[in-house]
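Final report, results section. Input specification for complex C-07:
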Amino acid sequence: MKVLVGLSLLVFLVGISYRLYGWLTQTVLTTDRTASPGRLPSALKGLMGTVFSGELLTLVKTFFTDVLLQKRLLSKSALRWAAHSLIFFGFIALLLMHGLGTGVSEFFFSDYLSTIQPYLSLRNLFGLMVLVGLGIAIYRRLTDKPQRVKSYASDWLAIAIVGAIILSGMVLESSKISSYSAFTTMAEDYGDITEPDELMPLETYWAAEHGLISPNIAKPYDPALIEEGREIAGDACMECHAPAQSAFISYSLAKVVGPIVSGLGDEGMVNFLFYLHIIFCVGLLAWLPFSKMFHVIATPTSLLINGVMGFKEPAKDPANELNRRMIGLSACTHCGSCSELCSSLMFYESFQNDFILPSEKVQILKKVAAGQNVEDQTLANLQKGLYICTSCDRCSEVCPSGINLRELFISSRYQLLSQGIPETSMLSHFSFPLSLTRNFIDDHKNALKKLEKIFKDSFTRLKDLTSITVSDPVQVGTTSYQSCYSCQRCTNICPVVRLYDDPEVELDMLPHQIIFSLGIGNKEIAMGSQMIWSCSTCYLCQEHCPNKVELTDIFYNLKNAAIKQIEGGRA
Amino acid sequence: MKLAFFQGCNIPIRIEQYAVSAEAVLKKLGIELEIIEEFTCCGYPVRNVDEKAYIIPSVRNMAIAEKKGLDIMVICNCCFASLQKAKNVMANNPELAAEINEILAKDGLKFEGTTAIKHFLSVLHEDVGLESIKKQLVNMVSDLNLSVIHGCHILRPREVTLFDDSFVPKITDELLAITGAVSLDWRGKLECCGAALGGLNSELSEILLKEKVDGALAAGAQFITPVCSYCHLQFDTTQLNIREQQQNQKVLPVLLLPQLLGLCLGIDEKVLGLEQNNTIEPAHVENLKSMLGPPVEKKKKRKKRPQKAAA
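Structure output:
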């Protein structure tokens, strides 16, 4: 067993070191190439700067409010806060009181013995807390989970392992309660009782009142023997062993578990369950650094950083910004809070792209950061998902783990745009808030240029036409264009047309010409014209048209169709 | 009266002072606002890409307000137009309406069309009324010349937005008139700020903006008063970005309608967030305050009470 524990501890420590090393060396889709050797000193400098400054108080405050009491989660959902707190405090209490062995408990309580009260009951109580918390978590994942957020195997595995530790512990305890071999060993080793005339009453008493299943005695128990046994127990056992009922769950469980265990051979079963329990525990320990359970280390770190820095300004030292991004990625527990409140939530319904949801973006970014191979198509979807974002920053505001999702997403977005395929969503108003911040100006312009080229290559333009043909009416969402009598009111009132000395050259086609081209059945030249992408959508033309031609609406329709054609050409 | 306050995406993170000042003014006038966490983007940003994707979010937002039995109040013109457009589509395109309702059913929502969409300006103008605002004024301004830019999507297309007269709008001017401010006649009043081209055709977007800034300055405006959040961001952020390259050019500061109205209602300037407007400098605020005086046709100026609670 020591080998098992030692081995898992080794795996744990190596894993943690590997993850911490990752924090300071890995990058995720960033244009910033700050060399990794610079990142450790930067991290230490940042840390020292915080600790030895007025920020220390903020740090301590954040530790209590955000890390221990999880205020951010509470403000999100009381139920989820309850679930997490039950698991968190229950598990930590079990770990300290029970898991880390008697050393820790004796340090605080000199009379500690695992078999006396209140420890016997507390163990069950803490276990129950974890189980209730897990129950709520499972319920939430099944019924009340954030809309459209998927649960992955890794999410279930985390719940399963923690649950397995608690349940195996409880079953183990109940098997020991009922086990005859455990009884005889304890009677001999601790009670110093070996004589049958003492053993028999004691056995009867433990069977009658403490759930022991003995092969030697059967119901109905002799009341006289019970009383005799009670007296012997009072001298020999009770000083160091509280009544088994104190372990209120395991005792009840023993009624079911007991007969099975004794049927299968109680000595072997107790041993088996013991190893099972240990294997789950060391399994969690070894698995922790490589799973979402690593959040027990990363999330407090992320919360502390967030408490000091917030998310609205990037770190002063670019190296620390990279560090923070990596810490943020490992702090994500895939809880889905961000996606639940994502402003772009409903765009998922139209684009069917998981990566529109922030929680799902983080999942794939984790893979990219870890150097896993991600298909080009997946990266293209990620790029689109990253772009279909209103920059409302609600995700960063609500993240219970304090991850600076904004920086993570902006930087990944531009890295993908600089290397990936031209992104048609750049032609949406999602580009507007990006243009305000004036970050990544050149990256943005270059990505737009790539896109412009595709448009130029994809459509015939008016100037390319050598003759005019008349075709069937086109589909542009309305037939109002058929009422046009070419008065050119639209072109004359257009605030964009009037900006140019030579608008026909700059815009390819003027508004009335676009309507005319639709009239003769040529949608292609309309879709390829610069006019629709220079339209400020002010609706003056549509409002002033004497024949109620819905020009601006038609321009929107043409833009939609042009993008659809480009996207379709890729498939 | 209680309304669901639809803030959109820009206002809470980039123009918080617009929401806070509007809320403070309305509270003073007896209108309560509820912020609904489940509201998402109105859909407007995606309109160039996919019309249906543009409609769906607004229908959902209205269905959420419907479920709560509230009408919606909007400040941003683009959110306003998106909600009105979605409402229009749901009434006139039964096929699409059925399809969208099927999507909403996943969230246990259904659109019936009972929620009214009100712009902040019409809430002031119609639901509160000019007369009852006047009664509450503790200050009026004198010698204040403003250029209002209505923004496009509140006025047009008139069949969809159903707001004011799209050719000769009067709501905004009448609201400003009761504060004593002069709303100038100027060329850009009903025109485009260029925001719709920002980030996809920024050069053109900035030309359109510059045209408006210069036009308003030439008309003698001391402040520009945008209605829409997109116009606001153009004047309050993009303008400064442009001015960075043209240092000697004058900056036209932004003053929002609820900020001005709030000052006249005696609300503290800190609450109204005047200094959160990027283009406003302390001197502008001082100048504005010096213009405040007791309402002309009213009795003496009442002593200003601290209005912290109004926040």
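The mean pLDDT of chain B is 94. Chain B touches chain A through 56 residues (CB under 8 Å). This concludes the modelling results for the funded period.
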